[in-house]
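Database export, one record per block. Field names are fixed; values are copied verbatim from the stored entry.
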Amino acid sequence: MSALMPVTLTPTAASWPDCLTERLGVAHTGTAGLLFEAFLYRFLSYQELVELLEKLGKVAWISPELLAGILRRAREVESK
């Protein structure tokens, strides 16, 4: 049984191919994922999440599919 250790990657480290981190068994969460988790734990409102994702998108590329998924799931949480 292996323990998972959460790791936050810096932009430089995040440029490693995802397959490398998967092969090493390293669970990782990117900046957009951390913002979504902050929303889930109510550290951010939905509007703050959207604003921060917009700001992040100005300095880093975010996959449109990832962004759409985060916003969809956030709307689902918000509507409950």
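Remark 1: The longest strand covers residues 7-8.
Remark 2: Residues 7-79 form one domain.
End of record.
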